[in-house]
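Sanity check

After download, print the first record. It should look like this:
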Amino acid sequence: MSDEKIIQHAIEHLYGPCPVGDFVRANEWASHLDWEMVKQQVDDDNPDFEWTHDESNVKDAAESLITEVRHGMLHRAGESE
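Expected structure tokens:
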């Protein structure tokens, strides 16, 4: 499973799928995501998950990756509308 799918699975486990067909609800759903909770869920489900492959700040890498996945989920929900 790709890193993005692992993160998406954690988001959906915690918050359910991104609402489709209602931009306002999708935005509200996205605004309630707590990247630290998502990171903890990923870490719990996948102890070997690597947030960064170099000496970068793991906190910044995790927040960035989770935000990117959330954005992708919103984008796909908007395309489905």
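If your output differs, re-run the checksum step. Summary of this record's structure: The first helix runs from residue 3 to 15.
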